[in-house]
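As a warm-up, study this chain.
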Amino acid sequence: MLQRWGGRVASLCQAVSGYRVPPCGCQALLTCRHHTCPPGAGHPKGNTDSPGDGPMDTPPGLDTSPPSDQPRFVGGSRAWGRSLSPLHRLSQMLPPQFLSPEIQDLRSAESEEPLLTHSPPEGSSGLDSQPDGPPAPLGTAFAPGDLVIAEFKRRHYTEFKKMFSLTDSGKLNSNWGVVGHMEIVGKLPGQRLRTSRGFEFLLKRPSLEEYILLMKRGPTISYPKDIAAMLMMMDVSPGDVVLEAGSGSGGMTLFLSRAVGLEGRVYSFEVRADHHAIAKKNVSKWRSAWDVRSRNPWPENVHFINQDLSAALPTMGSVAFDAAALDMLNPQVALPAILTCLKQGGVCAVYVANITQVIDLLEGIRSCRLPLLCEKIQEMSVKDWLVAPSVRKDGTVSQRVEPQGNTESELEGNGADPQSDTEMLSNAVKPFGQVPYIARPLPWQAGHTAFLVQLRKIRAAPTRTEPEESS
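Now compare it with the structure written out below.
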C-alpha cells in the first residue's frame, strides 16, 4: 500500500512541476484570489505564455478546465451575480471616495470599466459634504427645566456621566472642568461642549432607561432588563388598568405609565412613607422634564396609595385589574387579596431576589389552593460588548497588519519609521476596510438581579356529578 501511494505522489509531483502558469495567473495568485486572468491574456494564440514561446505543455492526467456541472465563479462571485463576500456587498453601498485601494481593485476586477473615484476637495475629509436635498431635522434645543446627561469617555470607557436639570444660574462642576447651565441652553442633543479645562462633554437627553439608572433611589430599583421582561409577561397595552404592589423608587411605575397610555390607569401601592415620597418625586420630575422636551404631555395616569395592599383593595370598590406587578418581600401574602380584583386570565408578574423566595411563593400558592398557574420562571442576563476601532494610547488608530513575513526587519533595513504613516494619517479619515477593530465583552457585566415569576389566574374545570351515559 505504501509503495502504491508513493508512486502516485511521485507521478503527481512530476506532473505539477511540468505545468507552467501564465504570468497573469502568477500575479493573481500573489495579489488576491478575486483577480481573474481573462482568456488569452499574456498568450495571444491562447496556448502560449508569451510571444515567441512554444506551446504550453499540459501534463497528461491534469485537467485544468473547470467541470461543467460546477457553478462558475467570476471575480469572486457566483455565476448568477451574487457576491460571496459580505465586505464586497457592503462596499457597493458606499461612495467610491470612501473605499480603500484594495476594495477598489476588487470592484474594478469584476467590471470591464475602471472604477472612477472622486477625491474630496482640499482641506475636507469627505464627510462634511452633504447631498443636495432637504435639510436634516434639528430637534428640540435644551431649555431651562430640561434633563441633560453630560458624558465624558476616554478610550471607549466612560469616566464621567451625570444627569441634572437645567437652571438659569446653575453650574456643572467636575474634575474635568466647569460648565455653566446657560452655556448648554440652546444647544441641541448630541452636541459636544468644552469645559473650562478643555475636555469635551457629550450632551444628550436621558432615555427612560437612563433616567431610572441615574435617578435618586430609595430602595433598590428594578433594572430595565427585568422591567422589559415583566411588561412582556403581563402583555400591557394602552387602556389597561394595572396594579403595582411596591412603588419602590418609581422605575417600574414610569414604564407602566407609558405602556397603558392616556386611557389606562396605574395603581401603585407602597406601605413605607419614605419610599412613597421618593417614587412620587421621581415620577413628577420625569413628567416635568417631558413636558419641556415634547409637545405631547406625559399622561397623568398614576395613582399613588400609601397604604397596605390588603387593607386598601377592599375599599376601592369595583376596580378590575388586567394585570399586576409585585415587587415585595413576601408576595404570597398579598395574592389572596389581589385575586379578588384580578380579571380572569390576568397575569401576575412577581419580582423576587433569590430562589428561596420563589420556593416560598409556590408553596404558598399550593398550600392556600389559589387559582394560579405558574407558567414560567426566568432570570434575565444581558452581556454588553465593546466593538470599536483599535486606538493606541496616544489616540492614533492602529495600522492593519498584513499577513507577510518579518516586516519589522524589513522596516529596520530600509530605515523607515513604523509609526510614521500612522502619525501622518491620524487626523485623516481612512478609507473603508483599512481600520482594524476590536470586539470583546466589556470587563464588567450586570449579573444576577432577580427571578421573574409569571402567574396566571385560572378557573378549574367543573367536576362531573352525573356519570356519562353509555352509547
